[in-house]
Fold this protein.
Amino acid sequence: MDETRDAAEEIPIEAEHRRTAEALARTAREVAARLLPFGLEPQDFEAALEKLAEPEPATGARP
Amino acid sequence: MSALLDLSLAELAARLRTGEVTARAATEAALAALEGRGRELVAVARLWPEKALARADALDRARADGRLCGPLHGVPLAHKDMFDRAGELSEWGTKIHRGRVAPRTATVIARLDAAGAIDLGRLNMVEFALGITGHNRHTGHPRNPWDPSRVTGGSTSGGAAAVAARLVPGTLGSDTGGSIRVPASLCGIVGIKPTFGRVSRHGAMPLSFSLDHVGPLARTARDCALLLEAIAGPDPLDRTTSPRPAGALAASIDAGVKGLRIGFARDGLEVEPEAEIAALEREAMAAFRALGARVHEQPIPALAPSNALRRIVLTVECAALHRELVRTRRADYNPETLARMMPGFALGAVDYLRALQLRTPLLERFVAEVFGACDVLALPTCPVRTPTLAETETGADARFVAISNAMGSAIGFANYLGLPALSVPMGFDSRGMPVGLQLVGRPFAEALLLRAAHAFETLTGWTSRRPPGAA
C-alpha cells in the first residue's frame, strides 16, 4: 500500500509545501549518497549515543 | 511582587528546607504572581490553587514533623500545557483538545512530585509545540517580559515568560527543534535540552518521537541542574531512556572551566549571526578565556544538511500523528502550525527512512570532528535578534516559515544528533533584549555544560538582571 499517495489524496497539499518537501528530500538523497554508499543499513542511534559518551557507569540495558 | 520570587530556585529550596520560608508562603506568592503578571503576559493556561495550597500545607506539616520529601520540598512550579497529570486538563495549546482530561501522569511530573515540588498548574505553549516564535491564536500570543511587543520564542513560550518575569523559579519544557533553548535565549534565562534518552517522555505530548526531548528552564544553571537531577534517569515506561542514572549534576557545578577546551563555531552555520549577536559571542569567549578556558575557533560540519534532515523526520512524524485531525479538523489548526507541518504529508517513506538512517553516521562524524578537538562547542542560540509580534504576524506565509527557520537554524542539529545543549544569557542587544549563548557537548555531558554555564553566569552576572516589573 502506498501510504504517501493515500495521504496526499485525502489531504490537499499546497504547491509551496510540495516544493519544500522536494527540496528536503533532495538534501537527504545527496547526503545519503555520500554517507550511506551501501544503502539503508540497520542503525542503532541510541547505542551510538551511549558509545560516544564520556565514560560513565551504566547500570544495565535500556529498560 | 513577593521578594520570595526574587530568590533563585536553589535559594528558595534551601530556605524551604530550613523552615525559614513555608511552602504555603511560596505557593501563595507564586499563585498571585501568575494570576496577575502571568495573565498580563498571556503565560497562564490554568492554575490549580486549591490543590496546590493543600499540598503546600501537607508539605509544611511534614517538615514540622521532621520529614523532608526531597530536594525540591515545597518549591512551587508550573509547566507547559503538555505534561499530563491524571485527571487534570492537558490541552496541548490547541482548541482541538479543549477539555482533554489527562489519562495518566507524566513520569517527569511524578518525579517532581517525589522530589517535593508543588504543581501550580499549566502554562501556555505553541499549539502542539510546533513553532519557534511563540505564536498561538487559540490561547493568545505570550508576551516577552523584556518587551511585551516582542515574541517569547517557542514552543515553551508561557514557561519562559513566567520564569523570566520571576513568577515561578522553574518550569519544564520540551525541545524538538529548539523549543527550550530559543525561548530561554529570547527571555534571558537558562534552558537545557538533555541528551536523547536522558529524560523520559512518558506522559508528555508527542510531536516527533525521534526528536522530542524534555528538559528544564530556570533562571540559573544551578537551578536547571537541580530540576534535571530530579527528572532524569531510566524509565520503564519510556523504552528510549538510557540506563544511565541521573547523576549529581549540581554537586560538580562549582568546579569551574580552567583548562576546558571551548570551541566556537564560525563556518558551518546555516545563517550568519547578526553583527550584535556575533559581538556578544566574542565577548562571551573573552569571558571564558578570563575564566581559564582554552578557547579556539572550532570547525564544524555544515549544519544545513542536519537541519534539513531534522525537518524531514519532524514533519513526517508529525504528519503521521496528526493525519486524522488534519483530515477532519484542518480549519481548527493555527495556520502557523499547518505551515510548519504540511511538507510532511508530501514526503515519502524512503526519504524519511534515509533521514533516520543518516543520524548515526552524522552523529559519529560530528562527535569525532568536533569533540575530538574541544570539550564544549559554543555558538549563538539564535542568530537573529528577537522580532516583534507584529513582524511575525505574516499570516503563516513563506516569510513566516523563513523567519522560523532562521531562528532555529543553529539549534535543530542537536535534536537530530541527540546531543545535549543549553542556552545561557550572554548579554543584551541594543534594544535591551537578552541574547543566548548555546553550549553543546558530547552525549551525556550535561554536567559539563551546566558547569560551564554556571562559571560564565557567575562571572558575567547576566542571569541576575530583572525584566521590567519583576520582583
